[in-house]
Amino acid sequence: LSHQSSEARLYTFSQETKDKLRKFRLGTSRAKGPQAVIYQIDKKTLEISQADDEVYTDMQELADELPDNAPRFVLLSYPLTLASGRLSVPYVMVYYLPVTCNSEVRMLYAGAKELMRNTAEVGRIIDMDTPEELEEIEEKL
Questions:
Q1: Are the C-beta atoms of 52 and 38 separated by less than 8 Å?
Q2: What is the mean pLDDT of residues 32-40?
Q3: Tell me: the pLDDT tens digits for 71-122?
Q4: What is the pTM of this model?
């Protein structure tokens, strides 16, 4: 088991994934509405990659897509009109960690959290443990 915990620091991103992350980040600044992509970690290879090819624009749909007992990283760009009338487009990472996760997978995602944040170049991380919280995302941004 000690072997496994030292392995847990060796997460990888394919070049394709890095390109996708960059393209998504650059593309979101021009988006008119919310955009989100889901990332997951392969337990065997420890590779971090996009869970599906979808870009979610509907928070309800995104919430439906999150698994009940596995963590995910969700990159989210969410245009907001500030009280001043200025448009702001926060780019955040939602660290989705359901309470029902087992400790192994919990550790797997906890270990990759900062790496994912840095690789995706997000401003901040928002922790969530239920998909429903996505529907109130505006209050958290």
A1: yes
A2: 95
A3: 999 999 999 998 999 989 999 999 999 999 999 999 999 999 999 999 999 9
A4: 0.90
Q: Which amino acid is at 94?
A: V
Instruction: Write out the two tokens for 104.
Output: 């192994």
* Tokens (6 digits) for 116: 């994912």
- Give the length of the chain: 141
The structure tokens listed for 17 are: 């994934």
Cα(93)–Cα(104) distance, integer angstroms? 21
Give pairs for 97-103: CB < 8 Å, separation 24+: 97/71, 97/127, 97/128, 97/129, 98/67, 98/68, 98/69, 98/70, 98/71, 98/129, 98/130, 99/129, 100/68, 100/69, 101/69, 101/70, 101/71, 102/69
